[in-house]
Amino acid sequence: MKTNLVLFLAAGILSLSACDSSQQQTGNSDSTSTDSTSNMIPSKANYQDTVEGKATDLYVLKNANNMQVAITNFGGRVVSIIVPDKDGKMTDVALGYEKLSGYQKANEPYFGAIIGRYGNRIGNAQFQLDGKTYKLAANNGPASLHGGPTGFHARVWDANQVNDYTLELSYVSKDGEEGFPGNLTCKVVYTLTDDNAIKIDYTATTDKATVVNLTNHTYFNLNGEGNGDINDHILKINATKFTPVDAALIPTGELKDVAGTPFDFTKPTAVGERVDADDAQLKLGKGYDHNFVLTNGDTTMKQAALITGPKTGISMEVLTTEPGIQFYGGNFMEGKENDGKAGKAYPFRTGFCLETQHFPDSPNKPSFPTTTLKPGETYKTSTIYKFTAAQQ
Ligand code: BGC
């Protein structure tokens, strides 16, 4: 394993020095270099800047199988995930931008981002805790979505690349930021493993009672980013219930059986098979944009979902300690992101998110698993995205 890694790194260095800088800037995937992945990742220079006084950069994790994951500390965003397909061809399965500026646009759809302090919506952008009402910054009609307009997705995280496999990101969210109480000290660790998995470990502590719900908002396309819609992906979600929403996409509080509805993914089913069915919940979400209920209080690491892109044979297994998972099918994508990697645009439903989480609007739903964090407690969750491809 070690020798392979040394050989791979040596090959990487040789091929990088063989590339001219213009090649690296383009992010062109049609590489002729010996290391087929070296120029599939945007140039580091495209991400090196200073935002609100802090340096931004692009960090690349690599494993013994040539899998690579590029992450910027602007929003802790996963920019590229390069994995082998069924024929061994390296394929980028994460949607993202060629340059940092892509992630800084207004209404950018959270590509690759760490989401916080609260993943998904809090109804009417307010909640009560210990008898006090906290008013949040509304950014989705009357609701707070993904932590507010300048949530964790738009903050510069302190980065420490420990080695080829591990990137540690830290951020302290100030008391009152986006309306949330308490100074929240957060750490998110991305670890790439030699079994082609990305593990994300989230921890947080607070100095005042608050609510926390951290997740990752990577848009995946397992047929390769920019390679058509995701309707043909075969999805299994290990959930017998989901949380139906109202017109503002806030959970009603009900846990509804998936059986007999287009939300039943307990058996592997193509995403597109029922997405446009005549179903009130699908109409509200403009397709799939719902939280699925994974457990009843079980916080052990378990498989939440398994999804395959048939064109590449690449499968992704999602495992998590979280009680819920949001399946978002890219219904609000408009193809305006034409500054995608290598100049690609990402139209309607060409990416999906599987966001492990506590349920949306939990601070206002006492029957949902709690998202309250108190001083002296440690918020701790983990999620794994593991990639395989049936070799031919
Ligand atoms: C939400 C969608 C939202 C999207 C933003 C998802 O997590 O569930 O409703 O539009 O994020 O890109």
Automatic annotation (TrEMBL):
<keyword id="KW-0732">Signal</keyword>
<keyword id="KW-0106">Calcium</keyword>
<feature type="region of interest" description="Disordered">
    <location>
        <begin position="21"/>
        <end position="46"/>
    </location>
</feature>
<dbReference type="InterPro" id="IPR011013">
    <property type="entry name" value="Gal_mutarotase_sf_dom"/>
</dbReference>
<dbReference type="InterPro" id="IPR018052">
    <property type="entry name" value="Ald1_epimerase_CS"/>
</dbReference>
<feature type="signal peptide">
    <location>
        <begin position="1"/>
        <end position="18"/>
    </location>
</feature>
<protein>
    <recommendedName>
        <fullName>Aldose 1-epimerase</fullName>
        <ecNumber>5.1.3.3</ecNumber>
    </recommendedName>
</protein>
<dbReference type="InterPro" id="IPR015443">
    <property type="entry name" value="Aldose_1-epimerase"/>
</dbReference>
<dbReference type="InterPro" id="IPR047215">
    <property type="entry name" value="Galactose_mutarotase-like"/>
</dbReference>
<keyword id="KW-0413">Isomerase</keyword>
<keyword id="KW-0119">Carbohydrate metabolism</keyword>
<comment type="pathway">
    <text>Carbohydrate metabolism; hexose metabolism.</text>
</comment>
<dbReference type="GO" id="GO:0016853">
    <property type="term" value="F:isomerase activity"/>
</dbReference>
<dbReference type="InterPro" id="IPR014718">
    <property type="entry name" value="GH-type_carb-bd"/>
</dbReference>
<dbReference type="InterPro" id="IPR008183">
    <property type="entry name" value="Aldose_1/G6P_1-epimerase"/>
</dbReference>
<comment type="subunit">
    <text>Monomer.</text>
</comment>
<feature type="compositionally biased region" description="Low complexity">
    <location>
        <begin position="21"/>
        <end position="39"/>
    </location>
</feature>
<comment type="similarity">
    <text>Belongs to the aldose epimerase family.</text>
</comment>
<dbReference type="Pfam" id="PF01263">
    <property type="entry name" value="Aldose_epim"/>
</dbReference>
